[in-house]
Design a protein that fits this description.
This is HAD family hydrolase. A six-stranded parallel beta sheet has the order 3-2-1-4-5-6, with helices on both faces. The protein has two domains: about 150 residues, HAD superfamily/HAD-like (Rossmann fold), CATH 3.40.50.1000; about 70 residues, DNA polymerase, domain 1, CATH 1.10.150. About 50% of the residues lie in helices and about 10% in strands. The protein is of the alpha/beta class. It has eleven helices and six strands. The protein is globular and about 55 Å long.
Length: about 220
């Protein structure tokens, strides 16, 4: 079998969080003076940390991105996530099956902040499958689209990146997984991001997380 581990992105892959987070972010950016709608906000920040767009935010609002503003964003975002968050449909079943199949060699490697990762995985009941193998790109010198967080996750599960399979839903995350040397499966339930992820180099896609174990098995057979 060509794969020995699976490395999951979190937002939009394991948990259905991106709508909640971007609603809070869009509202706060408008309050700060940047008149953008939800669709524009989602397109700009999909797969990216807020701090990664610091210069754009400061240019559009005309004010610095302060730690106080970020703390307020985290508090408002976390309150909504704690009240409303649900797992991505099919993700719990896929995680359980792959945790068993790969003897625990799965990890969560996200561009989000570590507090949010812990909150989300605990909220939807996935924490036990990833405990001790949860990584945030914000804890490293470089976040996605650089490969650092996936290289860290691969090292933690003791598997060469080339024998890891990454599950991603964004272009920056796809770049990170591919740059690490892993094989990337793109998860795109709407089909909206498939062309951009394909252009980034992703060749394999699923539209529902329930499909993931079968897709990995089929890919392994094709590459054997």
């Amino acid at each position: 079998m060509p794969f020995d581990a699976v490395l999951f992105d979190c937002d939009g892959v394991l948990v259905d969080s991106e709508g909640i987070t971007n609603q809070v972010l869009c509202q706060m950016l408008n309050e700060a003076g940047w008149a953008l709608d939800y669709a524009q906000c989602f397109a700009l920040f999909h797969g990216r940390a807020v701090r990664d767009l610091r210069e754009r935010i400061e240019a559009e609002t005309g004010q610095p991105l302060t730690e106080a503003w970020m703390a307020d964003f985290y508090a408002r975002r976390n309150a909504r996530l704690g009240a409303e968050l649900q797992p991505e449909p099919g993700a719990p079943q896929a995680v359980q099956a792959l945790h068993r199949h790969f003897a625990g060699r799965i990890a969560c490697a996200s561009g989000g902040d570590r507090h949010k990762l812990d909150l989300q995985l605990q909220k939807v009941g996935l924490w036990p499958y990833f405990e001790g193998r949860i990584f945030s790109g914000q804890d490293l010198p470089r976040n996605k689209p650089f490969p650092d967080v996936y290289l860290q996750a691969a090292a933690a599960v003791g598997v060469a990146p080339e024998r890891c399979l990454v599950v991603e839903d964004s272009v920056p995350g796809s770049h990170a997984g591919l740059a690490a040397g892993a094989t990337v499966i793109g998860y795109d339930k709407s089909g909206h991001y498939t062309p951009a992820m394909r252009q980034a180099g992703v060749q394999h896609f699923i539209a529902h997380m329930d499909e993931l174990p079968q897709a990995i098995a089929a890919l392994a057979r094709a590459l054997a």
